[in-house]
Amino acid sequence: MKVTNLDERIHVLDSESNAMTVVRNIAMSGLQEEAFYVLDVGDIVQKHQIWEKKLPRVKPYYAVKCNDNLIVIEVLAALGVGFDCASKNEINKVLSLGVDSSRIIFANPAKPASHIRHAAAMRVDTMTADNESELYKIKKLFPTAKVVLRIRCDAETAQCPLGMKFGCDPIHEAPNLLHLAYTLNLNVVGFSFHVGSGCQDPPIYYSAIHHCKILFDMATNLGFKPYLLDLGGGYPGDKDTSIDKIAEIINKALDEFFNTDAVHVIAEPGRFYVASAFTLATNIHSKRSVRGDENSSNTVTHNMYYINDGVYGSFNCLLYDHQHVTPIPLENGCGKMIPSSIWGPTCDGLDKVVENIMLHDMELGDWIIFENMGAYTLPVASSFNGFPIPKVHVVANENIWLSLKDVLPLTEDHFIIGNTPANLRLGLDIGGNDIDPWRNADPIMGLTSSEILTDTPNNPSHFIYDFIEPPLN
Q1: Domain segments of the chain as ranges
Q2: Residues 214-243, buried b or exposed e (16+ Cβ, 10 A)?
Q3: pLDDT digits (tens, 9 = 90+) for 435-473
Q4: What is the set of active-site residues?
C-alpha cells in the first residue's frame, strides 16, 4: 500500500536527533504557530517489546478507539498485533491495510444491527456480548459467530470505569446467558472482562481470571468448547508507569487457572501502546496578567496563558478520559515562580487546560510541551470555533526503520530518508512542497517557506516595495 501524502510518512532521523529535538526544531523555527504533535514510532515498538517480555502468553489486540492514527495501526499491524474494533468503520480501517479478519475481535457488547451484518460480510466472526438481547440479535443476524461473554469485574481504582455500562455479573447473570446461548445453539468460545481503563488495582486481574475459569468449566459441562480468554484493557502507558505488577498477577493467575496451551489468551491494550508515543507542542498566543489589589496594583498575582489547543481539541482527554496533564515550558525560565493557569483557544469558559500551576513568567510566542498525549486525544478532537486539530509529525530512528521498512503493511514508501529535520521544521513534505495551504508567505521578507529552504540569499523578492511619502498636513 502506497500512501501519496508524503508528509504523513515516517521521517527517519539521524543519530543526533530524537523526538524532542524535532519538537524543538519545529517550535523554534519561527515558521510554526499552530499546535502540533510528534509521534515517536520507536516508543510504540519499545512498548511492544515490553509487552512480549512481561506477558509472553498474552496476545495483544490493540484497542483502535484509543488512537486510530493510520501510522499507529500500520506499525502495530507490522508488529503482528491484533485489533479490538468497536464499529464497522474501525473494522474497515484495519481491514483496508490487509490485516486478516482473524486478527480482529469485535469487542463492543452492544452493537447496532447493521454493524453485526457488516462484520458477518467481512468475516469478522469473533464478537462479545453481555446481555440476552445481544445474544438474540447475534442469533438472527450472524448465527455462526464466535461469541465471547463479557463479565463485570471492576477495579477499585481506574482512570475510566466501564462496569456501569458493560459486563454481566459473573455469578448470576453469566450462567443464565450461557444456558440461553446453548438453547439458541450459539457458539460460545470464551469469556472476557475489562477492569477499567488506566487500572491502578492489579489484584483485580486475579479475581477476574478466577471468575473466567469457573465459567470455562461451566461452559464445558454444557457442551461448549471454550478456548478464548480475553483480559481486556486497562494497562497504563504513560512514561512514568509500569505494567510489571499487573503482569506479575496475570501470569500467576494464568499459571494457576489456565496452565494449558489449549486456551488462547488475548488482551485489549490501548493507552499502553500509544500514550507516551505522542508529544504535543502548544504555543502561547495570548496572555492576561491579573494584578493585586489597590494596595499593590502593580504586582502580578496570577498569569493566564491562552494556548492554541484546548479541551475541544487534544485536551478533551481532561473531560472524557479523566487525564491529568503536566505543562512543560520548552525554554527554562528564570526568576520567581508565579501562580498560573492555562486556557484553550475557544470562546468557551470551560476551555481550561490547567487550573493552577506555578510557572516562571512566560511571553507570547513561547511554547509549552505536553507529554503522554497519545491516548484518547486525537480521535475525539474537534475543530470547534474553527481552530484546527494539531498535525502529527511521525519520526523514527534508523534502527526502527531497518526493522520495519519491509514488514507489511509497511514498505519503504512509508519512510522518508534524508534531510528530514529541515522539512519537518518548515512543515514541508520531502519534495519541499508546502502542505499547509493556509500558511502565508513571510509578510516582511516576501519569501515562501520553500524559498527559505533554498540557500539563495541574493534572490530578489517576489514583491516590489515602493516608498510613498505621506502628504503633509
Answers
A1: 68-269, 280-389
A2: ebbebbeeeebebebbbbbbbbbbbeebeb
A3: 444 344 343 333 333 333 334 334 333 333 333 344 444
A4: 347
